[in-house]
Design goal:
This protein has helices at about 5-15, 20-25, 50-70, 75-95, 255-260, 290-300, 325-335, and strands spanning about 35-40, 45-50, 100-105, 115, 120-125, 135-140, 150-155, 155-165, 170-175, 180, 190-195, 200-205, 240, 265, 275-280, 310-315, 315-320. The chain is of the alpha+beta class and about 350 residues long. Helix 6 links the parallel strand 15 and strand 16.
Length: about 350
């Protein structure tokens, strides 16, 4: 059976499974996996001359050519002296970042922020070397609005590098890859390395600047006689009874017991805090989604600890409570709320 002469050509042109052409593979940057601790060893550091370093090299070349043309001995000496200083600067700049450990600041979580503010990420830099690390700069290339920060570490010491990142919208804000660089000592060379720690911070909705007054508190339940159902206090003798063995401590009427010298217990329930509900559906119908969340956030921050506050969102309800933990739970619900049936941000 005659063979097709073009078959070998067609089979040779087929790429191997999983093979990537060298031309495209050469341009791909290696993806560094996220880690909780990054040590800038020799495999993680890069060095290139700066514009000043390139100008310095051109100057040395011009001095060398002049010394060769005119046979100037002092010119040779000065050229080689400056070249040696440049090589020493290159090694000093490289060692300024070598074996520097970068971790997330232990015990200091990233500071939560409201939309429109700056979120703070704290990085801990550890210097185990006997020499100081001077002029270390941290920058986030993927976030142009982030402010660069710098730090200097003494020998065998630690320091905290705080990066401020603009928080434009509510939700989770992830810290992109951080570039740590140095131009020490004379700015002739720039040494840099990358640290991707995978840190995130929760951004709350921006509180409404001039929010309306708080909604009214929930009214007390009334009994059959039309009077409000009050709770027992230490002041009313008719609401107290003689102490019984096994009564919990919070039921004991301490003030009355101290005045009369007899142990007395409260007969009713302990006094309850007034309740205030922050309800999504109670807001004006034409108010946009983000404006609703901003108003609820402003009301939540304005409510003190004298009243319990509850939060109602479409698909989410948080029972009334008080305290810093309860307030943060409500703020997290506002920050992470998504419209029902919509996978994107509300």
């Amino acid at each position: 059976m005659p063979r097709d002469p073009s078959a070998a050509t067609r089979h040779a042109a087929l790429p191997l499974p999983g093979a990537t052409p060298y031309r495209r593979r050469w341009f791909r940057l290696p993806r560094v996996p996220e880690q909780r601790e990054v040590r800038l060893d020799r495999r993680r550091l890069y060095i290139l001359p700066t514009r000043g370093g390139l100008g310095f090299a051109v100057l040395l070349l011009a001095m060398l050519m002049t010394s060769l043309n005119y046979n100037i001995s002092l010119g040779f000496g000065l050229t080689f002296l400056l070249a040696g200083i440049g090589m020493a600067c290159m090694w000093t700049a490289y060692r300024n970042l070598l074996d520097l450990a970068v971790t997330a600041e232990p015990g200091v979580p990233a500071r939560d922020a409201f939309a429109g503010q700056d979120a703070a990420f704290a990085l801990r830099l550890s210097n185990t070397d006997t020499q100081a690390r001077i002029g270390i700069e941290g920058r986030i290339a993927a976030m142009p609005g982030a402010v660069a920060a710098s730090i200097t570490l003494d020998a065998a010491s630690d320091g905290t590098l705080t990066l401020l990142v603009p928080a434009a919208r509510r939700g989770w804000l992830r810290l992109s890859r951080v570039t740590l660089s140095s131009r020490f000592p004379f700015g002739l060379f720039r040494v840099w390395g990358y640290a991707d720690l995978g840190l995130s911070v929760l951004v709350f909705p921006a509180p409404e600047p001039a929010a309306p007054p708080l909604p009214p508190m929930a009214t007390l339940d009334h009994g059959e006689d039309g009077t409000a159902n009050g709770h027992a206090t230490d002041e009313g003798i008719d609401q107290l009874r003689k102490y019984r063995s096994g009564d919990p401590l919070h039921r004991i009427a301490w003030k009355h017991s101290a005045r009369t010298g007899r142990w007395m217990s409260r007969a009713g329930e302990p006094p309850a805090r007034p309740t205030r509900w922050l309800d999504w559906h109670a807001l004006p119908a034409g108010l946009p989604v983000e404006a609703r969340l901003s108003r609820l956030c402003a009301w939540l921050l304005a409510v003190g600890d004298e009243a319990e506050v509850g939060l109602r969102l479409p698909g989410v309800e948080i029972r009334p409570g008080h305290g810093a933990g309860h307030r943060r739970a409500c703020l997290e619900a506002l920050a992470l709320w998504r419209a029902p049936g919509n996978g994107g941000s509300a």
